[in-house]
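Morning. Coffee machine broken again, so started the prediction first thing and wrote up yesterday's gels while waiting. Chain of 280 residues, entered below exactly as on the submission form.
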Amino acid sequence: MSGSAVSNADLSDTIHGPARYSQPGRSYKSSCRKRCIDGGPDAYSTATMTAHPLAGSSVLFDLDGTIIDSRAGIIATIRKVIRELGHEPDLDQDLTWVVGPPLRDLIGEVLRHYGDDQCDDAMACYRRHYEAEGMFQTPVFPGMREAIATIKEAGATLYIATSKPKALARAILERAGLLGEFREVYGARPDDSGAEKPELIGSVLSDHGIEKHHAIMLGDRRFDISGAHANAIRAIGIAWGYGGEGELIEAGAEAIAETPSELPGLVSRQLQAALKHVHA
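Came back before lunch.
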């Protein structure tokens, strides 16, 4: 699959597209890429396969590391904050992990390296610099526009569940021309509270009366996977993001997508598996 949008008539063909699935402690390589963790393609009837499992479903997307490549802007902003607090940034300090955690958690961890505890001041400084510069360093990952369009055109309702402040996430999506693809954006409050994924995902489900077997979360960090599981919904790990396959496997992602073009078929398979369990 090239990642371009497909019609509903073609959607069943995407269900068997290449993908790597995972469970904790186990990775399924190329010889197994067409097998769902709940069984192979023969586990589902032809009638079920043509029912388009995306129709009527709800697909929740993380933002950073899933839709947008924001790491460079975040790291640049963190280094500005460090300088403003009177420290010389340690360029050898590993900051590859900073995309994903709530802002207070990541700022606190970064400052610990410098023996600094000015977390509130640092957070205010971060917001100022990120909104002025960092938010503009957020290109959309290649293929994600097409994947989002394909999933939506198949009948799914899309949501954002991000630890970024809601207003900032909306501004980034609007600038990227993607805001209209999503029914609603869920994110942290202006003071960065309410950024925990279990709370965000739970709010999406409860606010819109979504049945859990009709919903799925897509994200690149363990926070996305654990947040989904805390709400009893499935999660697909995003391999092109910042967590890495090992983190996603350990977190228990039901499947891992290696490229955006795999997402429509992989989401379909996982939603079918969820329905199979409900009706078993």
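The chain has eleven helices and eight strands. Going to sketch it on the whiteboard this afternoon.
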